[in-house]
Amino acid sequence: MSTFTLEGWLPAQQKRVETLLAGRMESIARRSPARLAEAMRYSLLDGGKRLRPVLCLAFSDAVARASNGGGEPANDAACALECIHTYSLVHDDLPAMDDDDLRRGRPTNHKVHGEAMAILAGDALLTDAFSLLASGSPAEQSLRGRLVAELALAAGAGGMVGGQVLDIAEDRPAELDYLQRLHRMKTGALIKAACRMGAIAGGADAQALDAAEIYGDAVGLAFQIADDLLDVTASAEAMGKPTGADAAAGRHTFPAVVGLERSRQMAKDHVARALAAVAPLEGADGPLAALARYSIERSS
Amino acid sequence: MSTFTLEGWLPAQQKRVETLLAGRMESIARRSPARLAEAMRYSLLDGGKRLRPVLCLAFSDAVARASNGGGEPANDAACALECIHTYSLVHDDLPAMDDDDLRRGRPTNHKVHGEAMAILAGDALLTDAFSLLASGSPAEQSLRGRLVAELALAAGAGGMVGGQVLDIAEDRPAELDYLQRLHRMKTGALIKAACRMGAIAGGADAQALDAAEIYGDAVGLAFQIADDLLDVTASAEAMGKPTGADAAAGRHTFPAVVGLERSRQMAKDHVARALAAVAPLEGADGPLAALARYSIERSS
Predict the structure, then answer these.
(1) Can you say whether the dihedral through the CA atoms of B24, B26, B27, B29 is positive or negative?
(2) How far is B200 from chain A (nearest CA, A)?
(3) pLDDT tens digits, residue range B261-293?
(4) pLDDT tens, B4-24?
(5) Could you tell me the domains of chain A?
(6) Beta-carbon separation of B146 and A142 below 8 A
(7) B33 vs A contacts (CB less than 8 Å)
(8) pTM of the shown model
(9) How many CB pairs below 8 Å do chains A and B form together?
């Protein structure tokens, strides 16, 4: 008799995140030069999918129902994750990196604010992710320190930044192992951190934290494979040719390396792994299960 | 009967910092793609003055003598400060920023490793500053959370990054208030954080923390004024003309805004303020007093 639908739940969660982000951004803006805050706001408050903060809050809510927790540390973790994700997009779009002019249909940060300011806005989003995550009451300090360690390890040289380095390497091999390692670092580490940080903020025991670990790893890979598949199939339908932007840019993708059918099967297997991990936490029909299914069923 | 001399003490402290940094860098390298670690190492282990880590450890040592503390959190704080300082130099040197080819007599990071890798190496140094600061035993987690908050606030939009934005603004006024605000943010905030973080890691009470606050603010400004003076006087002697690189680059400096004599007096006043702040902590003839004097008496 569940009345849960992702179509009703997800927009409400995204709105919850928008409100939190706007508040955190204003508190950062109060101590910042106006034009820096403007450049940060331009990219942070541009209405992305908010996948990482939504996952973080969903885990925090799922775990806190059974124990105690969530609250401001979970809210700050959600916002810190989006600050990190946003800075990575701003820096990835720079002329020296992917040299992109458009992001979500709008001019990229450096096209509007200039390259120097885009670098600095990214640096500030990255740094202040940690200031808002670490600042709280003395009673929360230990929990917040733990959240900082999770986020920094996932975002740094052994995680997201390292994955970007693997992705721009000219001699990268077209092999499944390399592709999985690359995506586990470049996007998977932060998605997994979102799940783990939500669980930690919600007061997870070792079992719930293991569930977050497995779910985050599986959903991160499923999401990436689905992205690669969309790039092929969306182009095939819309453009009448079999390959899309990834192939044109010389990127190795799951379909290119293991084929369409095996890619689809791998994505389904990852989703099954995610569903099994969170079933003990929320039953078979909760938001985490719905998000896992959505990761491969979405159309954009 | 003090046998303390800065000439004996400072090289030993710098060596202490080099050893710590090399160890931390190796632990980051173990989880990082090799070429990213190489680019990080190139700038982190290039033999700077290590002012911020030396200040951090000196405060930690001075405070811990009276109470308990220091140890690994102080060591990690020292290394995290240098990671942040190093990333800021790597990003400041980029073509879109100051476009510098040389740093400490060697080619800048992007000249050797390329612009994309220099951006990413800077991002990783910034992020992993927080991973090494936040990772420790559960008993230290609360202390480490507090250190993260100090560092992130000093380095972010309201501190170092914000100061860099003020420094590259084209409409910046040639006024003492603006100049002091700029330098308090761009270099002062991190120097003050070095002092405060050392004190906190050493187990400072409120009084010792106040001393670190005043000393850090004063030494930060004294150091910057001395830099500006060196740029004028070193050029005047070496080049036979009255202005140096700052004036050529259109930078506002303390000598340009308030004159040579008043700049010298301001620097001396800041040093006096620093000496008064730390006298109760270490007496009149300790390393912190010597470092404050050195900040304006150095020749490079």
Answers:
(1) positive
(2) 14
(3) 999 999 999 999 999 999 999 987 899 999 999
(4) 899 999 999 999 999 999 999
(5) 6-297 (1.10.600.10)
(6) no
(7) 157, 162, 165-166, 169
(8) 0.95
(9) 177
